[in-house]
Design a protein that fits this description.
mainly alpha; 154 residues; single chain
Length: 154
């Protein structure tokens, strides 16, 4: 083997190693993104399930219970803000719209439809536009809902 052939082989091996390292980096980056999306989802899901105020509001929304009128504004504001956070995560592609719909939209939609909930909150305020947009998008998704497994992953 000549020196020129050895240099060519070394260059080819170097290029292969470099390409393999690049590919491994892309795969690691992709996995890290999925892990971060999963963490965001799990944090939001835990907050919804473990917050006693949210659980009470969700139970009352099931039947549009008149007791919703008695819930303090602060608790309503926090509940609406929670769904706005979900909407922002969805808009930022940290949670897919299908996951946001399937796991969070039910109570947001029930809330939007509840006159009892909104009795002390101005639904038309500019400060609830993110919530209103989220509900509108989730309603559209619900009308054409078709389960596809690939939509429900990180």
């Amino acid at each position: 083997m000549t020196l020129a052939q050895a240099k060519d082989i070394a260059a080819i091996i170097g290029a292969i190693v470099g390409l393999a390292a690049l590919l491994k980096g892309v795969i690691e980056y992709s996995c890290q993104g999925a892990q971060k999306r999963a963490e965001h989802f799990l944090t939001m899901r835990k907050r919804l399930k473990e917050n006693t105020q949210f659980k009470e509001i969700c139970a009352l929304l099931e039947t549009n219970d008149p007791a919703l009128r008695e819930i303090p504004f602060k608790e309503k504001r926090d509940f609406l803000g929670y769904f706005e956070e979900v909407a922002i995560l969805m808009n930022s592609r940290l949670i897919s719209k299908h996951v946001a719909h399937y796991m969070f939209a039910y109570y947001a939609i029930r809330c939007w439809e509840s006159g009892n909930f909104w009795n002390s909150v101005n639904r038309n305020s500019i400060y609830w536009m993110v919530f209103g947009d989220f509900v509108e998008r989730m309603n559209k998704l619900e009308k054409r809902f078709l389960f596809k497994r690939r939509h429900y992953r990180f």
